[in-house]
Amino acid sequence: MNRQVLRLAVPNIISNLSIPLLSSVDTALMGRMDEPYYIGAIAVGGVIFNFLYWGFGFLRMGSTGLTAGAYGRNDRMQIALTLYRALLVAAIAGVALVVLQRPISEIAFWLIDSGDQVRHYAEVYFSIRIWSAPATLALYSIQGWMLGLQNARDPMIITVAHNLFNIVCNVALVYGLEMTADGVALGTVIADYSALALAFLFVYKRYGYRLIRVDMIRVMQREELLLFFRVSSDIMIRTLSVIFAFAFFTAQSAEAGDQILAANTILIQLWNILAYGVDGFAYAAESLVGRYTGAKDLTNLKKAVTTVMSWGIGLGVMLSGVYAVGNEYILRLYTDQADVIDLAMQYFGWTIAAPLINAYCFIWDGVFIGATATKQMRNSMLFSVIVIYLPVYYFGFPYLENHALWLAMSLFMIFRGVTLTFYAPGAIYHPIKKARSL
User: Fold this and answer.
1) Among positive and negative, which fits the CA dihedral 389, 390, 396, 398?
2) Cα-flanking dihedrals φ and ψ of residue 371, to 5°?
3) What angle do CA 167, 169, 170 make, to 5 degrees?
4) Could you list the pLDDT tens digit for every one of the 438 residues in the chain?
5) Domain ranges of the chain
6) How far is 369 from 236, CA to CA, in rounded Å?
């Protein structure tokens, strides 16, 4: 089981860590501009796209769970249909986002209150990057589908190539053509469509024989489409809740001023490194739990959950140690502005603690997605946001100020793990016991 977990997790960790590497390079590029509002601009722009794109994260997560279940049952028709349905939804949604970009922009910048300069450059960033929406959503679908087929290698190659090319484009446009936030956005658009072309090439070369020809009527079959959307809608609500928590974090940081926004943006990048690293094991959980749930193999399902959890928490402990030792040296990789570094150091303790408290809930997310137990995951997330995160911030802010924001985020993560642990016996293991007894 360790070999199976590592075979899936290691490629995912490598590919996932290339994502915050990209955002870290973007932050570093803007952090070496003359003013801190460039960092704030891509932070605000990034939050908006997190809402838009992560809201469609069900295209990856739902595809993984449904495909892995079909793989466990050896159902080739459902394997193919899951990909076709996901790509159809991705195409429709991507085009809709491009068409509706103006009202989306107006609503987003009305909700996020920031300085005039931050808003100006964030609007420029948004107006360019939105054109990559169809490519981004299609990539979610293809990579999730591959993970469901227990293939982590090809998504790793696609993601790493995507992000490295994105970094090259961004550096060339910012330094070569002396662009700012617009260069970062344009580089992302170019890289997104290039990665999509590579992904289709991998699908054709490796899985052409699996893609059974089906007509559109079968793709749109009511019962199966409803199952796809039921799983997808729960994951969407869950994902939008996560995005809301991080967007709220950025919005409150922006209200506190450009210096707080810059410091918090850098620190949250370090949280993202943890998330993307541990998510490598969460993706392994999605693939294995989906496979063993589809095969009704309770013994290996329990082994998979225990093994993945051990590896994920171990990685979290290691990252806490790195942050504790590196602290100020790590911050200097992001910016050379002394005021921002000094301010970030005041809140660095939350970043050291983050890997110890966050890894648990990240792994449980992967388990529930793999088992398509999405209703319980949705409820856990709503509870953690509404009952924990927001009240803690609003009650704590008059006394703790920016520390209240970090406390609220930390408790939000803790209660995600606690509630999912409570749900696990009935949602993950009991359905298989019941099916086997019948």
Assistant:
1) positive
2) -85, 0
3) 65
4) 888 888 888 887 777 666 656 666 666 666 666 566 667 777 777 777 777 777 787 787 778 878 888 888 887 888 888 888 888 888 988 999 999 988 888 887 777 766 677 777 778 888 888 898 899 899 989 988 898 888 888 888 998 888 888 888 888 887 777 777 778 788 888 988 999 999 999 988 887 755 666 666 666 666 666 767 777 778 878 888 887 888 889 889 888 887 888 889 888 888 877 777 787 888 888 888 888 888 888 888 899 999 999 998 898 889 889 888 988 888 888 777 888 888 989 999 999 988 888 888 889 988 998 888 888 989 999 999 999 999 999 999 999 989 999 999 999 999 999 999 999 888 888 776 665 555
5) 2-437
6) 12
The separation between CA 388 and the C-alpha centre of its own chain, rounded to angstroms, equals: 21
Token pair belonging to 83: 């990909």
Residue type at 376 in one-letter notation: Q
42 within 8 A of 208, measured Cβ to Cβ: no
What secondary structure does DSSP assign to 58-110, as a single string?
A: HHHHHHHHHHHHHHHHT-HHHHHHHHHHHHHHHHHHHHHHHHTHHHHHHHHHH
Whether 142 and 203 have beta carbons less than 8 Å apart is answered as yes
CA 52 to chain centre: 12
Query: How far apart are alpha carbons 136 and 194 in whole angstroms?
Result: 11
The maximal CA–CA distance of the chain, rounded, in angstroms, is 68
The CA–CA distances, whole Å, from 240 to 8, 57, 246, 287, 363 equal 26, 9, 10, 23, 18
- CA–CA dist 117, 417 (Å, integer): 39
Cβ(24)–Cβ(334) under 8 Å?
A: yes
- Give 178's DSSP letter: -
Hey, what amino acid is at 15?
S
Query: How far, in Å, CA of 84 to CA of 251, rounded?
Result: 37
CA 21 vs CA 94, 130, 210, 277: distances in Å? 25, 21, 34, 11
Please name the residues in contact with 430: beta carbons below 8 A apart, sequence gap of 6 or more: none
Residues 6+ apart with CB under 8 A from 269: 20, 23, 24, 27, 334
Q: Residue 346's CB: how many other CB atoms inside 10 A? A: 11
Cα–chain-centroid distance for residue 72? 25
Q: How many Cβ atoms sit within 10 Å of the Cβ of residue 234?
A: 24
